[in-house]
Amino acid sequence: PSFTPLRxxxxxxxxxxxxxxxAVVQQDPKLQEFVxxxxxxxHTLTETLGAxxxxxxxxxxxxxxxxxxxxxxxxxxxxxxxTYREWLPNAKAVFLFGDFNxxxxxxxxxHRERWGVAPHFFEAPLGALRGTKAEGPPGAAEAHLSxxxxxxxxxxxxxxxxxxxxxxxRVLIVPKEGEPIDRVPSWSRVVWRSEDSGxxxxxxxxxxxxxKYHFRFPRPRVPPGVAPAIYEVHIGSSSGEEGRVGxxxxxxxxxxxxxxxxxxxxxxxxxxVEHADFASFxxxxxxxxxxxxxxxxxxxxxxxxxxxxxxxxxVLLSLCHAHSSKNVMDGLGCMDGGDNNYFVSGPxxxxxxxxxxxxxxxxxxRFLLSNISYWITEFQCV
Length: 382
Description:
- InterPro entries: GH, Glyco_hydro_13_N, Ig-like_fold, Ig_E-set.
- By secondary structure, the chain is α+β, with helices and mostly antiparallel strands.
- Helix content is 20%, strand content 22%.
- The protein has 6 helices and 17 strands.
- It has helices at residues 35-56, 59-62, 126-129, 248-261, 298-310, 362-379, and strands at residues 70-76, 79-87, 91-98, 111-114, 145-154, 168-175, 181-183, 191-193, 200-203, 230-233, 266-269, 273-274, 287-291, 314-317, 323-325, 350-351, 354-356.
- Strands 3, 6, 7, 8 and 9 form a 5-stranded antiparallel β-sheet that branches.
- The longest helix is centred in the N-terminal third of the chain and has 22 residues, at 35-56.
- The N and C termini lie far apart (64 Å).
């Protein structure tokens, strides 16, 4: 006898028209069984974005903390100097020290910021932001202090900065429990390895105007319909000589023209962000805002990007935002003496040589989004 084969029900949904996060099914039908999860993620995303924009005014403002945290040159009310700001929820005392104070570990104490001070809006948990605007806990004055610590260091009487170009710095943290610890500031933009200890120190990078590199060429645009032809490269391994680390200057002068002549229109750089262990290939980042010191200086990297743009090459960076090196003395590991400042607490927060970022914390999300914004605005990467 004849029979009609059973067929799967026809999918009549116009997935491309969906505005709930499930439109991606149009491109990959196998994702249809995960539509509930896609919709839940999209709902959380839109809810969080709306809350952040309500609290900060815009996502861009939320992701501009690199102009607030770390060392910042400031001029206000006729007084100039540097501010240093750090998020340290497990600290009970914090001190900045370095070349500027002859490495006196306790002469420059930081003070805790107050909750809800615009434009900081410190530490409102993402869950609270998605509800009503949180102004901090009620109660005694101590309860209204946040976990963000800061200090202002004014210029010297003769008008010269107390913190000068190439000044080395570290931060001393007294945790709520345990012994005092030295750390590299989380938002450091330059770090150099000490010849004595082998550990990194933060370095204030503010060269004279005539020594700063200024971009001359705009980011190139890829014409519509032209697919990106990506040249992926680890600059440190690009020297072509065993045992010798490549650098920004050499790469700019010798390899960029060759890459252009091969027909590529996009660069993907793997090892630009500072990492203590060269063998990690840039995977275990220790200092997320710092250019790798083994490859060259901030100005040399800017010159590389600008030269690439002049040749019509877009520049992309590999940024590790799922995890960070678990290094304690030169990374974010146990930054304030606890294991859950930036990271998921306990064994589930450790993967091989890395710690997993805790994306449920507003300051962690702000740190990572500001990191993206920093590399785009400061170095013209896309």
